[in-house]
Write a structure and sequence with these properties.
By secondary structure, the protein is of the alpha+beta class. It has seven helices and six strands. Helix 3 crosses helix 7. 7% of the residues are buried.
């Protein structure tokens, strides 16, 4: 969505909050970063040009992250209704359903993510070996895509941090 990038690449002013947000720039693609140049723009946007191979790599990495239990999801909504929400002063004192819904939505969205993800079909293409993920019927994969892409970026950042630490030579001293 290059149009979204173009908006974020310029300073934004929020009239309601009276806050100006600084311009952001792309941190991993010079062609995109050079579309709009703003002095002092912070490199905070990670561009992904999706391909079948990249999507496959993301799916494999996400499966690994889930198998290693490296993501903690929120508890189910029903459990939150019993254990968490009744103990939240703001939730209990909310005067309307919209106010309560604000606190319920993270749990409901997490449930929707898990339901959506488990209903996807994973297929390995014999000719290329890539993993392709399909929706069934009218199901969607928007939440899956958002979380798996975010998880992939976290994995890349983690790998980068680990490789930076490899520059240091560790020695064991024994007395």
């Amino acid at each position: 969505m290059i149009a979204v990038y173009d908006i974020l690449a310029r300073p934004l002013y929020d009239e309601e909050r009276r806050i100006e947000y600084p311009a952001l720039t792309c941190m991993n693609d010079d062609n995109i970063a050079n579309r709009i140049r703003v002095e002092g723009a912070e490199p905070r946007i990670f561009a992904i040009n999706a391909s079948q191979k990249l999507n496959s790599d993301i799916a494999i990495d996400f499966r690994r992250v889930l198998a290693e239990k490296r993501i903690d999801f929120l508890i189910p909504f029903e459990q939150a209704q019993e254990e968490i929400l009744p103990n939240m002063k703001e939730y209990v004192s909310s005067e309307d359903a919209d106010g309560q819904f604000f606190y319920e939505i993270p749990f409901l969205e997490t449930q929707a993510l898990l339901s959506e993800t488990t209903s996807l079909v994973y297929e390995k293409k014999p000719e290329t070996g890539v993993i392709v993920i399909h929706e069934q019927g009218s199901n969607r994969k928007d939440r899956y895509t958002s979380v798996s892409y975010g998880s992939y970026m976290a994995s890349l950042l983690e790998r980068d941090l680990v490789s930076q630490n490899d520059e240091y030579d560790y020695t064991v001293f024994v007395n």
